[in-house]
Amino acid sequence: MSTVPPPDGELLAVVFLSRVLEPGDTVGGRWLREFGAVEVARRLRYGGPRLAGVSDKRWAGLCARAAGADPGRDLAAAREAGVRFVRPGDTEWPAQLDDLGDARPTGLWVRGRPSLRIWALRSVALVGARACTQYGAHMAAALAVGLAEHGWVVVSGGAYGVDGAAHRGALAAGGATVAVLACGVDRPYPRGHTELISRIAQQGLVIGELPPGDHPTPSRFIVRNRVIAALTRGTVVVEAAHRSGSLVTARAALRLGRHTMGVPGPATSALSAGVHELLRDGAVLVTDAAEVVELVGDMGELAPDRRGPVLPRDLLEPDARQVLAALPARGGATPDEIARAARTTMDDAIAKLYELRSLGYVERHGDGWKLTRQALISAREGRERC
Predict the structure, then answer these.
(1) Is the pTM of this model over 0.85?
(2) Where are the domains of the chain?
(3) With 80 as the cut, is the pLDDT of residue 300 above it?
(4) CA triplet 197, 202, 206: central angle to 5 degrees?
(5) Are strands 368-371 and 234-237 parallel, antiparallel or unpaired?
(6) 312-385 maps to which CATH number?
(7) For the chain, which terminal residue's Cβ has fewer other Cβ atoms within 10 angstroms, N or C?
């Protein structure tokens, strides 16, 4: 019968602080950097000298929370739920989270088998409106499918709307996806996504800063977004109103020097207004997974050129196109008239006219030349393309 080795003092201190300190607490992060987890935990647990940066009232509140914290119990509950705790310095810790400085997570609770560090190396965040439109859901799913097919991990927040569509798209493509929650990873939120988050935990990863059993609050959703931004190579916003939380993720990505992208929507859509503002502020416009990969991927991972269809007349030499353009749309013209309109000599115009006739663009009528039906159709297609 295997036994679980007892946790070391440093681990117990970090787990303890994950229960006491709120995610994103930069003052607590500074304490950890200056004094270490063991000393900070000791002072909070036993009411030692107050650490600088908080009022007496705030310090008393932290000590009251510390009195109810039990890291051994949290670790036991995590093991029971198939959850592990990853702290800075561990092999599985994603080093890019250190870019958050003192706002770096104390640690992360991880549910799922893959290595978080390895998966995060090639990951993209897809975020957006909870109350998204059908267009937003379609774009999020299509992007996730495309990213999965390119071998990228899709990271999102597990919420309704764009988040859920992104996770489902990645799963449907047999790809990898990570849900970053604003609550304990053993209690999926929202409740309506319990089945989805459980499936993500089976095929991918569910992670969060809060210990087992902890519940989400509005502020925790906001600070959770910095983890999504820091963890990934880039963030794509699919739909977002002016006050959308997904814009917090995008702006955090900008501050961290990550690639920030937006999917445009209708100019009249309030749900795309935030994305359009983001694009004006310097985010890159993307419309499919290939364009995302071109931005976040390695050198040479280029999206295909976006061009309209090549028309037969596009393949003509410039001089021949000039002569062809000189013929009137109705009726015919003499070689002399065509040469003047094409600004060339009559001998050159006649040579090009015979070349065009062999290609089916013009036909001779007596002393004049006129466009064929094929040429008229080609000219109309050219005008429509413009």
Answers:
(1) no
(2) 9-71, 95-296, 312-385
(3) no
(4) 50
(5) unpaired
(6) 1.10.10.10
(7) N
